[in-house]
Amino acid sequence: MKDVRLNNGVMMPAIGFGVYQIPENETERAVNDAIEVGYRMFDTAASYFNEEQVGNAIRHSGIKREEFFITTKLWVQDYEYEDALRAFDKSLKLLGLDYIDLYLLHKPYGNYYAAWRACERLYKEGLIRAIGVTSFSNERLQDLFLHNEVKPAVNQLETHPFFQQQAANTFLQKEGIQHEAWAPFAEGQNDIWNNPVLKTIAERHGRTVGQVVLRWLNQRNVVVIPKTVHKERMIENFSICDFTLTEQEIQDITGLDTGKSPIYDDMDLATVKGIGLHRIHE
To answer: Which member of 51, 202, 216, 268 lies 3.0 to 4.6 Å from 94 by CB, making a disulfide possible if both were Cys?
Structure first.
């Protein structure tokens, strides 16, 4: 499976498995299935409340720890420096691991400068192999790395055919920061599974719409972390490297871009307030 090289030299799989919105009582089974299929990169977060289950599956897999690439995320509530250190320690204990491969600031709100400096400390101490961010706009991301020591290795952004993040992709490639897609299937919005452009391309290649979307992202050098609880879908999502979309097909998909999110608006004041004040623990 293709890997990408992060700006600090760490190798990261191009295809991983996300566990957002997978219930705690289903997560360990889903991760076990994904491991059997061949996934070695898993993406969780403190705010998903399933870090422990992900860790259980990893530790009981019989596979060496170094073969896995584990991502988790720091929630906004814990962005003060000491809070961030404590939250990281809690995530590490829940996962039952000695280190995290990639640790991300989950949203670009609150005191993310203090949180980033805590991440830098943990990175320098060897507890994290790479640090990055989620959902940072180009200007906030640039501001962050201009005034800190360690440049983010990854920016995880909502990226799919309806919100393609073309400007962000160009900026990230220019700055040597890896673009990673969350919600690659737009969380089912805009009737993505029945989109005529995607269905036509899928039929042409004898593939599913999901495989076409993931291959399109893959060909744009965007890392993907699709989520599913169905093993047959895990297999489909993992099997995308044996066909190639043509330039015309890529252009056809480019025409689906609306330039805005069908999931939520980062600039909506009520949304920003809700995320900024959302607490995941006492």
So the answer is: 51
Yes or no: say if 157 and 135 are a contact pair by the CB < 8 Å rule.
yes
Alpha-carbon 94 to chain mean position: 20
- Residues whose CB falls within 8 Å of the CB of residue 275, separated by 6 or more in sequence, listed in order: 76, 107, 109
The pLDDT score that the predictor gives to residue 218 is: 97
Distance CA 97, CA 114 (A): 24
Quickly tell me which residue has 């996934």 as its tokens.
39
Backbone angles phi, psi at 86, to 5 degrees: -65, -40
| DSSP code at position 62 | -
What b/e string do you get for 51-82 counting C-beta neighbours within 10 Å, with b at 16 or more?
bbbbbbbbeebeeeeeebbbbbbbbbbbbebe
Q: Per the structure block, which two tokens stand in for 197?
A: 């452009």
Identify the three-state secondary structure at position 46. Answer: helix
Question: pLDDT per residue over 188-237, tens digit each?
Answer: 999 999 999 999 999 999 999 999 999 999 999 999 999 999 999 999 99
Residue 1 has pLDDT above 80, yes or no: no
Task: Tokens 């996962």: give the residue.
Answer: 95
CB-based contact 63:36 (threshold 8 Å)? no
CA 173, CA 161: separation in Å to the nearest integer? 19
**Residues acting as catalytic residues:** 48
Domains of the chain: 3-277 (3.20.20.100)
- CA–centroid distance for 27 within its chain: 17
Mean of the per-residue pLDDT values of the chain: 97
